[in-house]
């Protein structure tokens, strides 16, 4: 919005704002949740409250002190996270989950420069009458290549299940196993993959799937962590599934031998994921130790410099104790080290 476009009427003591377009996500979410008839009133309230907050000395001082720091950004992110969590608890949950997974696959394919085609099915039915199971279909190598179907289930009511759970049984509900089989048939895919969120897991899935698991006769089960924005397990699972599909499409490979290889490969995949977790934990601990070490080192340097100036003519005074208590050099050292750790790719 151009500053010059805002008109101030000194006589009538009014301010006129031009028609504006705001791209801020939080503002969009707020107005989207407000009935159309109430949006003008909401706009007026936001202008008034914003003006008060900006002009109030205490709030203004707070905003000024955090403008270039993490404080204001953190508060903003907390609001966005709260709104996201609200959405994930409503009917929007399924659509949001499917979109997140679709985007993660697209980014993965692009990062590897593969020609794979990622297609969301949305509300489109498959070959089974009235059936929409199978949220994303991936064509390995492009159109005409082997298909992988992805079902997204961020639902803690979905149990692991197995071949013994017959569809015709009374009161039977969908399971991970049945959804994999159904998705594969409905989307005519050679392999099925189901994605779960760590925050919405049935106990049976939680005990059987640590990161990535092979469900014999059905397909792959994968865990992601939407709260942490961690979709890294998809990379491992998709790499495995892709290799399997390309191998299975070769006529010279014996299906029984391939089955043995798949079983062994999944064991190694799970082992690698377990080692990765340990490595990440060690790296995080090392980063925290480095920050603490630099903080203590800066404190000791400050104390040494202070003591070096002490003499009969220059004894320790209250100002020295105040400097020691405030420890600005120590805080600066900690911030500097935390920044260096983040630049190295970690989070402290």
Indicate the CATH architecture of the largest domain. 3-Layer(aba) Sandwich
Number of helices: 11
Distance between the termini: 37 Å
The coarse silhouette is flat
Overall number of domains: 3
Describe the oligomeric state of these chains in a short phrase. Answer: single chain
Helical residues, percent:
40-55%
Strand content: 5-15%
Largest sheet: number of strands, sense, barrel closure: 6 strands, mixed
Please count the beta strands (DSSP E, at least 2 residues each): 8
Which fold name is given in CATH as the topology of the largest domain? Trna Endonuclease, Chain: A, domain 1
Low-confidence stretches: none
Q: What is the CATH C-level name of the largest domain?
A: Alpha Beta
Structural class: alpha/beta
Radius of gyration: 29 Å
SSE topology string: EEHHHHHEEEHEHEEHHHH
Lateral strand order in the biggest sheet: 3-4-5-6-8-7
Compact description:
By secondary structure, the protein is an alpha/beta fold. It has helices at 25-32, 39-55, 57-66, 70-88, 93-111, 176-186, 203-208, 232-248, 255-308, 318-326, 328-343, and strands spanning 7-9, 14-16, 117-120, 136-139, 147-152, 191-197, 212-215, 219-224.
How would you describe the overall organization of this protein?
The chain is of the alpha/beta class and 348 residues long. It folds into three domains: 3-88, no CATH class; 97-253, Trna Endonuclease, Chain: A, domain 1 (3-Layer(aba) Sandwich), CATH 3.40.1350; 279-343, no CATH class. Helices cover 53% and strands 11% of the residues. The chain is built from eleven helices and eight strands. It has helices spanning 25-32, 39-55, 57-66, 70-88, 93-111, 176-186, 203-208, 232-248, 255-308, 318-326, 328-343; strands at residues 7-9, 14-16, 117-120, 136-139, 147-152, 191-197, 212-215, 219-224. Strands 3-4-5-6-8-7 form a six-stranded mixed sheet, with helices on both faces. Helix 8 (232-248) runs antiparallel to helix 9 and helix 9 packs antiparallel against helix 11 (328-343). The longest helix is centred in the last third of the chain and has 54 residues, at 255-308. The protein is flat.
């Amino acid at each position: 919005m151009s500053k010059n476009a805002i008109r101030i009427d000194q006589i009538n003591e009014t301010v006129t704002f031009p028609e504006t377009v705001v791209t801020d996500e939080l503002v969009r979410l707020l107005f989207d949740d407000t009935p159309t008839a109430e949006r003008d009133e909401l706009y007026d309230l936001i202008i008034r409250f914003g003006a008060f907050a900006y002009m109030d000395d205490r709030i203004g001082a707070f905003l000024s002190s955090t403008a270039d720091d993490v404080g204001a950004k953190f508060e903003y992110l907390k609001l966005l996270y709260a709104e996201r969590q609200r959405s994930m608890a409503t009917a929007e949950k399924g659509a949001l989950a499917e979109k997140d997974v679709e985007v993660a696959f697209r980014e993965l394919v692009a990062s590897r420069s593969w020609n794979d085609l990622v297609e969301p099915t949305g509300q489109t039915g498959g070959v089974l009458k009235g059936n929409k199971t199978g949220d994303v279909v991936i064509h390995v190598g492009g159109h005409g290549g082997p298909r992988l179907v992805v079902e997204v289930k961020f639902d803690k009511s979905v149990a692991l299940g197995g071949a013994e759970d017959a569809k015709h049984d009374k009161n039977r509900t969908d399971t991970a196993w049945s959804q994999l089989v159904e998705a594969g048939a409905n989307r005519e895919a050679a392999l099925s993959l189901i994605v779960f969120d760590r925050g919405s897991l049935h106990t049976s899935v939680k005990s059987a799937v640590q990161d990535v698991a092979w469900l014999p006769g059905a397909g792959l089960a994968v865990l992601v962590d939407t709260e942490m924005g961690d979709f890294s397990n998809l990379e491992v699972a998709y790499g495995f599934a892709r290799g399997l599909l390309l191998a299975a499409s070769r006529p010279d490979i014996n299906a029984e031998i391939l089955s043995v290889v798949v079983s062994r490969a999944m064991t190694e995949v799970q082992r690698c994921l377990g080692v990765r977790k340990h490595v990440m934990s060690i790296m995080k601990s090392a980063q925290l130790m480095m920050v603490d070490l630099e903080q203590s080192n800066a404190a000791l340097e400050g104390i040494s410099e202070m003591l070096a100036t002490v003499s009969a003519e220059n004894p320790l005074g209250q100002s020295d104790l105040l400097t020691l208590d405030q420890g600005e050099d120590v805080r600066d050292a900690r911030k500097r080290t935390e920044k260096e750790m983040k630049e190295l790719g970690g989070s402290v």
